[in-house]
Fold these 2 entries.
Entry 1:
Amino acid sequence: MNWSLFFDLTVSGLTLGSVYALIALGYSMVYGILKLLNFAHGDVYMIGAFIGWYALHALGGPVSPSVSAWIAVAAMFVAALIGCGLLGVVIERFAYRPLRNAPRIAPLISALGVSFFLQNSALLLFGAAFRNYQSYDLIGSRTFSFGNLYFGTPQILTVSGALVLMVVLTVIVARTTVGKAMRATSYDREAAAMMGIDVDRVISVTFFLGSALAGAAGVMFGLVFGQVYHYMGFIAGLKGFTAAVIGGIGSIPGAMLGGLIVGLGESYSTGYLPQGSTFQNLYVFALLIAVILVRPSGLLGKAAIKKV
Amino acid sequence: MKKLIALALVASALVATALTVGTTRGQSAVRAGNGSATTLISCGKTRTIGLLAPITGPAASIGILQVKWADFYVRTYNASHKKTKFKLMKADTQLGGANGNAEALKSAQAISGSSKVLGVVGPAGSNEVKGTTAVLKGGGLAWVSGSATNTTLTTDGTRTGYFFRTVPPDSAQSKNVSHYIISTLKLKRVYIIDDQEAYSTGLADEVEQQLKAAGVTTTRDGVSQQQSDFSSLIAKIPRDTQLVYLPWQLPPKGQAFGQQMKTAGRASIKLMGSDGLFDPAFASVGSNVYDSFFPVQPADSAIKAYKKTHGGQGDYFGAPSYVAAQVVGGAIDRSCKNGKATRAEVRGQIRKTNLKKTLLGLPVRFTAGGDLRSGSFGIYQSKNGDFARVG
């Protein structure tokens, strides 16, 4: 057994899985409350990556920023969190709220439309050229090694940052009033409204939080993998959705678990399976099918009980 | 209810018929081209050269250089000729973009369909040349690429007499690359990663074969051109690998790969790219980065004049496109001597091209297949963020 390869693949899988987990959380939160698959979520992640890039360049760029590198990174995250959060609120208000009482196919189509709108808007505004974060120049090239295990600074930043954001989200949902309102609304929207909860506001907050996480994921992707471009959200969104389904759509711990499973699955398939790097998407989506066949509600999801 | 169903069936049949007829007509148009090979065109004072290049998209950083050099040819020609002028009809192929060759095909259709276009410069990518062959050939056009190097483009017989190029083929590039790795760098363990496109797999196959024949241990892998996360792929590269060869087309991908190699603790492994990665973005990765590139003569007067009007930058990746425009422009001039020309005539004149001196540092004459009669690739190493010739 080549332990060096195994550890490298594990680190790579955890890094990627953290990004997918943040995207999956947004899918799960929105589905939990609205029973809507927000297919525009992947493109919100793409917008977050661009916001981070522009924030970095507003501060002087990666080679010689006008502030310290870590303040620049923090500013990138804050800009992406707030920018994407607000974008999510706007999308909900104009593309989904008017269709809340329409047949369920209508908001789904609207979500696809928003996805294409965001992608092509990014193409129009930012152009088709790739942008590079040059994180190697920004936060240095230090690599930490523990025996056969190697971690780079961007990877440590991504995994720890994702962990912090997931913990914060869990605390918000479990311990705050707005979190309680979110849980009540996801359980029974009508009853929550009757109990005096402002359902519209709760849904807006949900979209803000989910989209903010996607924006942060976009910045993390740029820092680790270097490049951002206008169609990066499509496949990442699909994989985030896959992660949410594998973990159990509507379940926050499920989304986190699903993200890590997808990230590790992708990494191990590249390392160990035939033509893994070429067909990693094939293996990931095959994993999705396998999990759904065995456990349709996902690993941590609960089977829906319908009154007959 | 039954009436409704009947109406719906009739409507569907009508729509299906209309679509079939429209598609068939469209296909016929694609096959024949609106400007056909034998249609006599009045040349007029201003003649049109079609230009297919990745103006936007992942390869835009090198495509734009081809556009600049082609523009430079047209400006230079127009400044020195009073009675005749050239203009470019530019079309974007978005090489390496999400839509694959779809954009290249659309652009080729637009150019082929324009009755004013007598010859074409481009496209840039070997896969694009293959993808647009039916359209351009169907329109009777000759096209001259300043960068498509896949060997089979001129040996498979599909586009003989129509396709030409002002760069040597990969059979020359692979020999120069292998020779440098074996004889100069004297390396024994090489990892080759192609990007699954025609240009890349062809070149990777040739280099792999030549290295193995010389006793070099080679490992081969592939990655999708759409991928940005190379970390798992990099994890597979043994730490005692001496060089990773990347015959890729997209400089941003090469740059991302190099940066991720550093993050993974593999900064000491040399990287070598092919002509598609000949860009400051790839060079910026570090000093252990090499690349192969087609010949240019920096002392040539055209290159000096270009640098003077472009802030001292040579933009050498685009220089063969200048020669390609020169070839097409010269052929159009000769064909239009009596004021009228057909695309077939221009093709014939391109075949007879005999430029004794060009900025490539070698004469330009074509073989029957459409290749240059001579030419080899140089090897460059990254120094201070740009490439300098070392072999």
Entry 2:
Amino acid sequence: MKKPFSREQRLTIIYGILCIVLTIVMLQLWLLIATMNAYLGGDHSVVLPAGLASAICLALNAGLLWYIFRMERRR
Amino acid sequence: MKRERDELTVPPDGGAGDQQPKWRQDFPIDWPQDHYISRRDFTKFMVLTSLAFAVGQFWIAVQNFLRERRGELPLQKIADVDQVTVGTPVSFAYPDAHDSCLLLRTGDQTFTAFSQKCTHLSCAVVPQPDKGCFFCPCHEGAFDLTTGAPIAGPPRRPLPRIKLEVRSGAIYASGVELRTI
């Protein structure tokens, strides 16, 4: 069985995950604004690819959150 | 009982930190643990924000799907050619009764029509033929009178152009052209 992380290690991990999550959320915000602007401007071709990209971003974030929960369960 | 290196305080029952009730674990006294909990909760909140953005994207996709299902916009008579004079805009509603538009005669046989909704925050724009622009009084935005392109203020997208057809002496609206530039 793996040795659980110490508190210091967990803090380092949470900082790393938070940085990645923040970057992805910023990307999603930009994606939403760009898609809205394009959609209101009549460019409907970007809607589905942007929606797919946003769903992938959400899946990445959810995966990282799941990792945090798993890490806490292992404590 | 194993303690963390920076675990300073001792719970009232003397047990290990991770054996404490959930509420006590979520409100720790030690600073390092408090840092961990606050950053973990902020990460959770950010993932929730991520979900909100994804829902927003989904909402746009649903709107796009509903728009495609509506199909072509109907042909609607606006006015007879003789009723429209140069410099005097004619107001009409298209495609719905709440979508105000303006028809302008720019030449002998040339007409243009735009939606009256400002592309910034949907205020009604006012035609100012003497200045060659549509003026939005809400935030002092302005659009070119002949092209609908934004020329001043916060709007970034041009006014939606109404497609026109002239048939047997009458002007008809046949569609809406949305543009980004």
